Please model this.
Amino acid sequence: MGVRNNVTVFLNFAKEGFDKAVLVGKLFCCVHVVNTYFCSVVLAYGPSMLPTISTGSSLLLAERVSHRFNKVGPGDIVILRSPEVPRKVVTKRVIGLEGDRVTYVVDPNNSDKSDTVVVPKGHIWIEGDNIYNSYDSRNFGAVPFGLLQGKVFWRIWPPKDFGSLRRRAE
Amino acid sequence: MATGKFLWSFTKKFFTFGIVGLTISDRYASVIPVRGSSMSPTFNPRTNSSSSSLFSDDWVLVEKFCLTKYKFSHGDVVVFSSPYNHKEKLIKRITGLPSEWIATRNFDVVKIPNGHCWVEGDDPSLSMDSRSFGPVPLGLVLGRVTHVVWPPQRIAFSETAFFDWVAMLYIIEKHNRSFDTVKIL
Model:
């Protein structure tokens, strides 16, 4: 009798544990789907977007919808996989879409020499707002549209800058 | 009332299944069909089949674990979105990795930039690959093809390691027969 009781207790215990594990798994899946297909929090740091996003780390909200429907235009702040270091995600501003003519200053620290290029098909031209200290399309050229990961639309940290980021520096 | 309850539980199951499936296909592995014959000896080997339907195409297993580190080696077959049309997915074989020199068709030698790779199809005459659009950023890679899962008579590893293994077994077998030894693992 005692053995049987123990077995029932153990079975109940195991069942409960299994149910909890399934619940955690489902929660993880929900978080993944929301994070990949709707909206995610990004941590941005570094000087390349300086007037818009400060040097210290700031938390931004990025929506993951519009780049799937080609709804990205010049002036949008986007997050994208760096073409040179694929594990890194960088924050830049879109300057030109495919077919646009983009004029940029080649080396703003030393000279005023500027250059004009036409962005190839399926590519976008991205630049940091701080052209003096940014590693962007002026160094590695236009990047494929497929590298885009999302569009930044809201800043949540630091709290004094809480608010929309859309078209602020235009 | 009973139908409402049934409908509710059905939608709940449906959505749970969808979300779990989406997560698995995004993070771990998915199965996709191979269209076209640019990888001809490896996938879709019949060149004369004009009827490219869902049933005559090869279906392959794509694993996504490689996306955490982006470490690839020569000979990996990868799925990536085309640099000129991000909606289009291509399957090609990596033949060059960052900071290597590659000789192209018109006798140029190019150096592959950091974070890029050189991809080529197995059938050079039919393939639209790095020989036409240059190095591809590794960030565009969506997964690595490991197995053919359909049609059943073609289920195999995409790497040649499997065939080497089969050949080795065959040699061991022959060896056993001729020398009458059984002490081989």
